[in-house]
# Entry
Amino acid sequence: MTKLHWLEVTEYASLYASALGTLVAAVTQQAVYAAAPLTVAIGLNVANRERLKNLNERQQQTAIAQLDQLIDPFRQRLENFDSFTQNLSQTTQEQIEELQRHQQEQSTDSVRQRLVQLDSFRQQLSRNTEQQIEPLRQHLAQLDAFTHQLSRTTEQQIEPLRQYFAQLDTFTQQLNTATHQQFELLRQRLTQLDIFTQQLGKNTQQQMEQLQKFQQVPNLDAINQRLSQIESFTQQLNTNTQQQIQPLQQCIAELNINTEKQTEEFKYAIALLQTELQKLTQSIAQVEQQLHQDILKTKTKTENITQQTSLKPQEQQTTILQSQSPLEKKKNFKPQPDPEATKVFVPVVTTPESQPTIIQNLKSVPSLQGHLERVVSIAFSNDGQTLASGSHDKTIKIWHLVNQEPRTIKVSERVNSVAFSPNGNILASGNDGTKIRLWDVRTEQEICTLSGHKERVYSVAFSPNSKILASASKDKTIKLWYIEKRQETYTLTGHIDEVLCVSFSPDGKMLASGSGDNDGTIKIWYLTQNKFLTLKGYSNSWGRIYSVAFSPNGKFLASGSQDKTIRLWNVESGEEICTLTGHTDEVYSVAFSPNGKFLASGSQDKTIKLWQVDTGEEIRTFTENRSAVYSVAFSPDGKKFASSNADKTIMIFPYQ
# Structure
């Protein structure tokens, strides 16, 4: 044991002895037994305190000495590290200075080599420039020849139209002469009838005079017989006259009907020819303008080539591609996005064989009437025999197109969208409220109500397998609903403004959506991959996206927007293919034909336009609607398409 421990033991022993002496003094009542141990304990305590203090100081000194011994190696290593860092910094500085000197020497050598290369490149460029100017001159000569040929072909195309107009004029003159001849024959027959009636009146007057003479004769029986004969003769004469007049009346009515039909057909043919002639003149003017721009671009490119003498090889290749002819550009074309390009199709005059047949007799276009307010949405059933319409009068009507008799379903809110399930059993409606309602088509009873949106529902669409329903709402979300379980499965978020429209792809793997003007974007949602693609076109100011529709093959997407245009998109790359212009106001609805070759669009400008998809050509414009067109839809068999309008009607157009 150490000294420190012995001191502690003696101190505790003296304390126990003093405590024992105190106990004995208390028992024996003698203070000596308590005083002696207490005095010894106090003395030992005083002595131990001093000794404990000395022992603690010694222990601290030994501990400090041990720490110094441990720290000395680290101090030496730190001193060695400081000397190493100083040496390293000196050597690094020397190396940096040496590198700078070496770099300066190399830079001067590289500059000299670069100058030599530039001189050789200038010489080569001058030779290439001379070689490039010659094809440009040839191209200008080809453009001049093409312009002359185009003018000749234009005259050749206009000449048949003039001949056709001349034939129409001669035909109308012949029709007028034939009509005048028929009217002249009718006038002659009418004059004959007048003469015959006058003679009949004279004969009747003579017979009446004879009767008056006979009245004076007392033979009454003979007079009565004569009167009965006269009455029978008069009746027979009236029937014969009526029989003769009736064919004339029928002939006159048929002649009037045929004349009206022929004049109506001639007016329609003249209007068609005028529109075709107008399109032809516009296309000719646009082609001439394009040729003029190509010539100007070619001239500017030649000037730029002669002025620029330090082009890189890649820039040379770009210049050569730009100087190619339009046919060579078409052969070497690879689709690349160009933000500065204006992708608007120029209307192309096609032959009548390439256009669909539109039955355009205004009297034969049926109109379904029954709603009390604007009709904002329509949808054909899968068999094409039934049409559903939703209106702001808080009703849904299911029309049987055979007899055009509707069944009415009353809703508590304004209806914004209707959609048939592909199997034809369920009809969904999106309303001004926050709920979506599902209806049984056969019984017209409400199946269920889907609740989840926080604001009004603008659009609903079924997946191709009828199992999923998508809904777009003002609350900036898209919800997917599982029909069998009648519950929400997923919520798509990504738009920063209200979502106005949704549409499923034909395979059901993608969903397209368009939003309001604060967002103004179109998104394609890949449902199996849990991601989306935002479509970016050549213009950023689309405004509100009112309608989106996939083509039947799923490769293209059409959109109608607030900027009065229709855009076609490549679904795979997300790039804008073209912009269709022609409407003079906002485009509310777009729809592909079942074969995917044509596209219909309805607008605020009270027209429906039909477009050819592969060329972007506007085929027809229907102006029969008297108000804004909110929705267009093709029947599944492709024989007709319909439009819902702001004047509370639904128009159905026959289509082949």
